Amino acid sequence: MGVYCMETQHSARGHRLHAGFAILMCSLLLVLTGCAHLTYDSTVLPTPTVLKPSPTSLPARPKADEIATESNILRAQVAKVQKIMAGMSLDQKLGQLIIVEYIGNNYQDSNLQYMITQQFVGGFMYQASNHNFDPPYDTINLVDDFSRRAMRDAPIPLLIATDQEGGEVNRLLTFHGYLPSAEEMAATGDPHVALTQGSQTAEWMLQLGMNVDLAPVVDVQTVDPPVLVTRMFGRNPQTVAVYAGAFLSGLQKNGIIACLKHFPGLGAVTSDPHKSLPIVMRNLTDLEAIDLAPYKMMIQRYQPGMIMATDVLVPAIDPTLPAEVSPKAIDGILRGQLGYDGVVMTDGLYMAGISDKWTLSEAAVLSIIAGDDIIEGPASPGEVASVVTAFKQAIRQGRLTIDRIDQSVQRILLMKLQYGIIK
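The structure corresponding to this sequence follows.
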């Protein structure tokens, strides 16, 4: 999630693939159907495939024959996902749209087991500030055991995530000590440093049973001092794209889903979104040249598994709604203009920019209407239930449709299949 400091980003509550082939995906939605329930082993975590790209510049676009081959693979994957969806209940589908946090380090007493087995949530997040890594869960083996137990209980294999950037946002500190920040990685002048750290991070996360890193940050620093302090790779979009792309490659080439954040950009904010709704007063020309540019450069070339939208008001895009709940920002800019058809996740819906105006459940509905696929924020069965109830009410009222829900579920399951989370 879009945390802004190391351990103070949460309150006592615990404050808390692929892009590309969009045209093919649209046509597949119309012509492919599923008819049987698929069985799979949810206890097996993905095995990394170690590759060693050389990200000294943005990678070349794929050739026509490569696109054709990948299109055929994608067609088969979509067919497999739709077979899974044919056997899912509405509650199971709605659960896939939710990633939860949990408080403490007891699987049952924290109610995480209930949220997984009875409410069918699509995943959960580890957060040190939620006391998830308090002793005895400060060892790699016990956290891995925790992850595997959760996977065994899940009707559909889980996204198991954390924010691992390095520097001030270093969730693996307990296990591996200090790691350089984005600013420090870029200061070396060598993108291979970011590639190496991304690759190492992937290896360590897999050891802990995790499969999603909510990183890298692709915000472009344009104010001093920056609210995001050392979390940004640079002051121009090209630098950000190269170093963030190297870090992302290290993650995704080694079996971890990466997540670009914070769309549409926090590099110009001057206030902490945990306390109020920040506003970015750029015109569209400047937004496209600065904040949106890393996404434009990276979406097709690096195929990020996920993108996180955040609670920032950008009047040039939408003068009334924060980006993560704005159809103009998500369906209009991210999906329409930038062509991203992968999984979009919200930032924490409990932050003040959202919670001052909407309940968690209403913000969740607005997010799905806007074009997001996964909402992040619930941390208890009661909060999950309120979100699911709101989804169902929105369906009855015609604000959401089953087709819209299926669209997000398909994206999520496709990503899980492509990363070996679903076998």
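Strands lie at 98-100, 123-125, 159-162, 164-166, 169-170, 212-213, 257-263, 306-309, 343-348, 374-376.
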